[in-house]
Amino acid sequence: MNYDAALDQAIARLHDEGRYRTFIDIERARGRFPQAIWNRPDGEKQEITVWCGNDYLGMGQHPAVLSAMHEALDATGAGSGGTRNISGTTVYHKRLEAELADLHQKEAALVFSSAYIANDATLSTLPKLFPGLIIYSDELNHASMIEGIKRNGGAKRIFRHNDVAHLRQLIEADDPAAPKLIAFESIYSMDGDFGPIAAICDLAEEFGALTYLDEVHAVGMYGPRGGGVAERDRLAHRIDIINGTLGKAFGVFGGYIAASAKMCDAIRSYAPGFIFTTSLPPSVAAGAAASIALLKTAEGQKLRDAQQLHARILKMRLKSLGMPIIDHGSHIVPVHVGHPVHCKALSDMLLRDHGIYVQPINFPTVPRGTERLRFTPSPVHDLGQIDHLVRAMDRLWSHCALNRAELSA
After folding, report:
1. What is the dihedral of CA 317, 320, 324, 330, to 10 degrees?
2. Among 10, 12, 352, 360, which residue's CB has the most CB atoms within a 10 Å radius?
3. Can you give the pTM of this predicted structure?
């Protein structure tokens, strides 16, 4: 086999479909984010504003977070030196898991190297703990959840997105005695819509199913202490396992689950994705713990309020121009384009001509025909930057003669 030719063909297919992904080389500057420097392919440097980051609240540059990381780095050095089972558990890891358990009002928490690994490792391990387990998964669940469910070797059922009636039909068709788990998300990041948490919890209680909630795009962002949508809606106590990330609103790196002490103990004891992975550097764990602690306070609520205000302003201004935005009331602002080539061209023009960095979102992240630009306003974006973005979008939409008919939510 000509392996190079096969690779060339695979990459060429992405180019032909207009969805080849390009890395944009940027330099974040502490204290200036969302301003950054783009190292252009021609060797020049250009100042840009980042509009597609997941550091939703700017915590990646918060003094309290940086101070905690410096302290831990100076005290312990760079890496953890091992897996959690073999020399990789420190006081910083224990402190972080205690903060997370408290955040979600659970008995325990377990930290992984990413939320992707936390989902994959946990969902692929659960059938080992509950033989015969059937997992019911929302069709728009994140790739990490899908991968974990595929790999677990157990039975799975896919229900239509947010369709509780369809979920009920699937559960009713299965053996009442079989162990069951419903896996879903609180906020689906590409459309910014919310999962029906209360209705799914009602169904789970009726049929004796466990609940598994991915709060990756909600932790830090919702609830009086940043515990996510489940905390906001006073439903966290009805969720058996909560998955979250440390790399978005908390501004650092890593992922976790929060659950009962027995559940966390079993997952840490059986999940290869936990057992055989080097633990987070102590400095990262320290920074994440500091971020979580701060976002539980009144200062955290101010940041959440400012972020929501900026999201509402951006949506309102784009709507007033007839932009086809998808608005489900969350902090995420997707603008529908519907074609991968057009989406990439808009992204390129925004970056090159207006200093606005927003990546095109194409298949397989979203279904074909739903390609979009996904904006994530934050408290550290100011009104002048919002105005500049809106004016640039208006000019480019006219220049490219794109549809201004507003999408229904």
Report:
1. 50
2. 360
3. 0.94
